[in-house]
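Quick one: structure tokens for this chain, please?
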Amino acid sequence: MVSLTPLQYRADPAADLARVEKALREAAKTDDDFLTEVASHLIPAGGKRLRPAFLIASALSLDVEGDKAESLTEEMVRGGVAVELVHLGSLYHDDVMDEAETRRGIEAVNHRWGNLTAILAGDFLLAKASELAASLGTEVAELLAATIGRLCEGQVRELQLIYDVTRNEEQYLQAISGKTAALYATSCRIGGIVGGAERAVIDQLTEFGHAYGMAFQVVDDILDLVATDEELGKPSGNDLREGVYTLPVIRMIASGDPVRELLGNPLDEETRVRARAAVVGGPEIATSVATAQSFVDKALSTLQDLPATTGVQGMRDAATNLLSALNR
């Protein structure tokens, strides 16, 4: 699997995320054993837990003694669990829409238990996230609720343009702003709120999260095309197969390239391989990497006047190293 550089925001971030992991497992438990099994299914499969890590780094961004274990408060842990539950719930729903068979190397919930169960379990995870957010105050509760709405809007924007060869860059950027960047922005914003930062700093952290999330999704979409099946854990060019035309493909179509003639409908295996090879061989991969770098630069610029704490430095390093996944 292609992996991104872990977020190192203090000496031992693994200890912080271990607390989040324990609380995450507890949050997925219910009085119903079956629902607990389904809701917990993806948690042991791992995941980078980037959203909780950014929340904690943001919360500790002004903490000059950030290496102290007691710096991590219960509010930060609950916030981290809340944003990760939203992410997990969205994955359950995504897998239903994609008719996925696997997720994180194990059988997808929808494939094992059916679509109805997967949808309800995803709804349960979102409800638990909202419950935790409410415990952190009205502002956080409203923020997370609005973010869930943005995730849905972003996904709908993408669904409306499946197999649409006229999809343009503006539509693509609007979709990823909702379905990916919004949750990164919210993770950083909640971190600033529970960390007691001033409003101006909270806004800076939010801008960082959004820009990072935009770069993250562009990089992820490029990896879907350039990485191998083994690195991805699924067939490369899967977005092409599903009719989701991402930035390099959109730009290649706009250039008048004959790859457009291969697209617009479900692809058989041979056509998927041909279309992917055409995109990978074109200049649009490089221009899309440049776009990802521009979002990274924007993210870094938002942190310029913040103190060089371990939290801030960890966020800077994560953004700086984001594109390194494309060089492996």
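The mean pLDDT is 92.
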